[in-house]
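Class prep. Write one:
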Amino acid sequence: CPYIHRWTDAFVGLSTCGRHMSAHRVSGALARALEGIPTGHALTAELMAHPGYPSVPPAGGCGEGPDAFSCSWERLHELRVLTAPTLRARLAQDGVQLCTLHDLDSKRPGEGVLGEATLETFLEPSPPCP
């Protein structure tokens, strides 16, 4: 198969999503995921988040219209935390490089440095529901 999907080494953020998300909690969760990793070894981690703008009924949602999740203010809170300079500064200080899943899929081991995600990455619309 010519298409190879790359999974991340770690999954973090179950304790940092929604109303609990803050720059401090996200950087702490990533730091715990990096504990014991030798210096210079790259580790990939997926951050659990669903940032976005709350749906306003009757529009939005997946399938039969908006649900409690799509209408939640917590999505906007996550968007604000993830796009704030505070979090980006903490991540840069910790040597964390943001990228998209596409960046991981397009790189094979040993092919150099991943491209940094831009602010627009966080603001892209979600794909349509199946």
